[in-house]
Amino acid sequence: MDDNKTVFLENVSKTYQMGEIEVKALKEVDLTITKGKFVVVLGPSGSGKTTMLNCIGGIDSPTSGTIIVGGNDISKLTEKELTKFRRNTVGFIFQFFNLIPTLTARENVDFALDLVPKETRGSAVEVLKQVGLGDRANHFPSQLSGGEQQRVAVARALAKRPPVVLCDEPTGELDFDTGIMILRLMRDVSRQEHCNFLVVTHNAAIARMADTVVRLHSGEISSVETNENPEDPENLVW
Ligand SMILES: Nc1ncnc2c1ncn2[C@@H]1O[C@H](COP(=O)(O)OP(=O)(O)OP(=O)(O)O)[C@@H](O)[C@H]1O
Ligand SMILES: [Mg+2]
After folding, report:
1. Nearest CA-CA partner of 91 in 48, 65, 53
2. How many angstroms separate the alpha carbon of residue 217 from the centre of ligand 2?
3. Which atom of ligand 1 is nearest to the CA of 202?
4. Is the pLDDT of residue 238 over 70?
5. Which residue, by CA, sits nearest to atom 30 of ligand 1?
6. Which stretches of the chain are DSSP H helices?
């Protein structure tokens, strides 16, 4: 396995069985993403974006095919190894932030850090500073705006220094300017840390700032394009 290929999918299919009905959410998907790329996954509702992300993150498992992330062949991992993989190798950023309401910003980040080995993690306060929230570390989620909560979620994912960060509609709940700020933050971090970002979105404008754009349609990859000159998030209009 080429180390450079941090995410590799071969012939990946996912079928959900709903009683008599089979839903083919992914159909023989092949995809290779090299280290440090900012990748946007586009596609209409129901095209399989979340399913693909969840399979890559080890939250869901494919019905058939091979998924290798950071050198780990996911289907070959035991439950224990899979838990470790989810903690150490991938970071998740969701549409609705998913912060723990009874913990402060700093505690939310610390909580995620507790689970990973000391040598790989940054400090919660450092990472909160990196996302511009150094002065909000002791705020609870209810005392933060939506954009600030999403920045805490970005900090929580990045503090683990994972090689792969998976984001499902990270700007879906944010206004335009805040969305741009979060995107710029993620793009800058992917450049600095050389980690992969896979960002699922409905928003075609976001695709212009990506290194790679993957389009899904009815569970199949319809195209993979490379942007030679990704745009600055500031220049996006949607
Ligand atoms: N747990 C499940 N059980 C049964 N069918 C499912 C399940 N999860 C997803 N599906 C089906 O699989 C297909 C792909 O769903 P998925 O959530 O991956 O789409 P999506 O591209 O993320 O859509 P959206 O943009 O609306 O979030 C859909 O037809 C959906 O109904
Ligand atoms: Mg989805």
Report:
1. 53
2. 13
3. 25
4. no
5. 46
6. 49-56, 79-88, 105-113, 124-130, 146-159, 176-193
**CA–CA distances in Å: residue 54 to residues 93, 148, 216:** 12, 25, 15
Task: For 67, list phi and psi in degrees, rounded to 5.
Answer: -125, 120
pLDDT tens digits, one per residue of 124-146: 888 899 888 999 999 999 999 99
Tokens 């998976």 -> residue? 166
Quick one: DSSP state of residue 122?
Answer: -
Contact (CB, 8 A) for 231 and 209: yes
Q: Please indicate whether residue 54, judged by its CB atom, sits closer than 6 Å to ligand 1.
A: no
The identity of residue 52, as a single letter, is M
Structure-token match 């990946």, residue found: 12
Residues facing 221 on adjacent strands: 216
CA distance 7 to 14: 17
- CA of residue 13 to ligand 1 center, whole Å: 13
Q: What does the pLDDT read at residue 195? A: 86
| Model confidence, pTM | 0.90
Contact 147, 182 (CB under 8 A): yes
Q: Which ligand is nearest to the CA of 55?
A: 1
Helix, strand and coil content of the chain, in percent to the nearest 5, comes to 35, 30, 35
Strands 196-201 and 164-168: parallel
- Residue 61 Cβ inside 6 Å of ligand 1? The answer reads no
